[in-house]
Amino acid sequence: MSLNDLAIARSIPLRPLSEVARIMGLGQDDLEPYGNTKAKVKLDLLKQPSTRKPAKYVVVTAITPTPLGEGKTVHTVGISQALNRIGKRTCCVIRQPSMGPVFGIKGGAAGGGYSQVVPPEELNLHLTGDFHAVTAAHNLCAAFLDAHLFHGNELGIDKDQITWRRVLDMNDRALREIEVAHGPKNGTPRRTGFDITSASEIMAILGLSKDIHDLRKRLGAMVVGYTQAGAPVTAEQLKVAGAMTAILKDALKPTLMQTLEGTPALVHTGPFANIAHGNSSIVADYVAMRSLDFVVTEAGFGADMGAEKFFNIKCRASGLKPDAALLVATVRALKMHSGRFTITAGKPLPEGLKQEDLDALAAGIGNLQKQIENVRLHGVPVVVAVNRFPGDTDAEIEFVKNAAVEAGALEAHVSTLFSDGGKGGEALAHALVKAADQPNTFRFLYADEASLKQKIETLATKVYGADGVDYEPEADKQLALFEERGYGRFPICMAKTQYSLSHDPALKGRPTGFRFKVRDARVSVGAGFVYPLAGEIMTMPGLGKVPGGAMMDIDQDGNVIGML
Length: 564
Hints:
The protein is an alpha/beta fold.
């Protein structure tokens, strides 16, 4: 988000939120207003039978991104506007951004240009307080755990096997490793640390829970540590699950906002896409699916990350079947994936495209091809959006579009959703309507009954392109233990880099001839997935020398300025 984005957002008057709600079939009694620009949606409506056919379900994903992202949120917002422009009543469903990146390097996550959820400063800062509720619930569990140790430790928790840390919705590297309970009468001294709130298991649970009772059950199942004998200790045993549910009862309700063109937008939950599933909530999708023609949701990072987890974790939990995917590509990201490319014999280069440009795009085209394949592995038809940036040539755009179709995309179109709003994506909208009208052949990539190692190896070989998997001893030990404890039916939530199809961020394009390395494995019992660790995953980011927040302030009228 730039200064220009904020100016654009403030230059266009908002529709009354009651009008936006009516598009979704929601009345005033279905809403809990938080001022004039946002409202919680009551979940009582999910208990009422719906007479409409469920909406078509579209997921927005991408090629392997650069650190600044390739415009997935812009396209999630923009394509919902474009679908409305062609007569399809549509809602977009997005995650709430963490304030850590907002004040760090990446900035806000409201979209940009003329494809934004508005007001962007409210979306990016606090919104309706859901992140704070997750932070409070998580830290309440930590407080109960330390109080239990202080008051005699009846459960026999081994302090060296405590897995539950604390969380904060901020980038703060100084809190990654800390010691608690210093001084007399302050409890049992031990080493622990903080993660960012987006990495909390509770955030993942909030996104996967179907209702308040499912939330309560999942919270109780969370494992916070182990006894000396290796038995898991749960939040239920600490007697804290009920209180956590009470804190989160309003956070379970999605927040209704709108786009610059008055399209409904549901904003809910914000789990990381490498340590968690990287998708917005199931309940938000349930609300949106009831009364619209299309629901557009976003999966974090590339198709090997958020989209794979959307298919195999979120859809497995929700029972919903996606009808189509929109995959976003940019020339700049493809050029980042530098490498060599073999030209098909007899096919000349597009006019105006020089050989050095082709060489710069070559490895990226391999990445595009593999990410299209990764979506199609799940039986979902793909439409590719080439997100146009200033400086992209017509020849480069045509080259990428043609490569996408040759790789199996149904259609590929240039997108100007950032600069033109919904009008800049009408061709994409028509293509998605055609894609979603195909017979639904969605499928999971692996069965529940497969072993954890079989699931990991399926992902590594089929999605990442590895020759096989190498497990370090700790990973072998943990996976065997999880099978023994009955967690073998859980899906896999791979914790790996978002900057490569592989486990190694240095391997760009479409890497081949490598073995995928798993160094450790952990389990989120409440969320219901096992997350193998492939490489180092940062769960508490740090601020740079000049954080994005250094540019933020308020103007003489009290408006937020300088938000990236």
